[in-house]
Amino acid sequence: MRTHLRVSALFALLSIGLGCSGDSPVSPAGQTRAPQHGLVSGLVQLDVLQRLVPLGQGFSASATIGSAGGSLRIPAAGVTVTFPSGAVAAPVNVRVTAVPGSNVAYEFEPHGLVFQKPVTVAQDLGLTEVVQSLLNAQGLEGAYFADASQLGDGTVTAQEEIPATVELLRMRMTFPIRHFSGYTASKKGGYITSSGTRLPVDRTSR
User: Looking at domain 39-194, which CATH architecture does it have?
Assistant: First the structure.
């Protein structure tokens, strides 16, 4: 009987732990916190969505965002970043820079800024390889990278995958972010093992 009670209690504790594993308290904007949303167990090698015309320079946009929210746009890169009301508790200066080259990738400042409500990144797909083949829109997602050294020629070593919404009729994709760092519009790729080997992902199962 005691053994049965101990087993029941163990299952109850496991159930509570699993039920709470997805909960991650949001730090006030302006504080630095390790990213929690969409974290993977290890580094992930992803193919980055490519631009039809590479950017010859880094284009930037900046603004002061207050509690009422706001937005930033970089028309040359086809990106819009929307901050909802309540995303920050106090005014903060933010900056978004499109990384030069063919990768659809951006760096956000101040690095480590955490939001109280998710911020939305919208990417115009009409400026990307998607217009050449709609198959390129399959499996699109957002991806977090810590710094530019994780960007390669058409690839990114990501630490976080973020589900995206793709609207082909509007030729755009959107995904939420909860903290500032680097983000790309990416395609699901493969995992990097501890030995550095890249393993493909079965896309049909994800």
Answer: Sandwich (2.60)
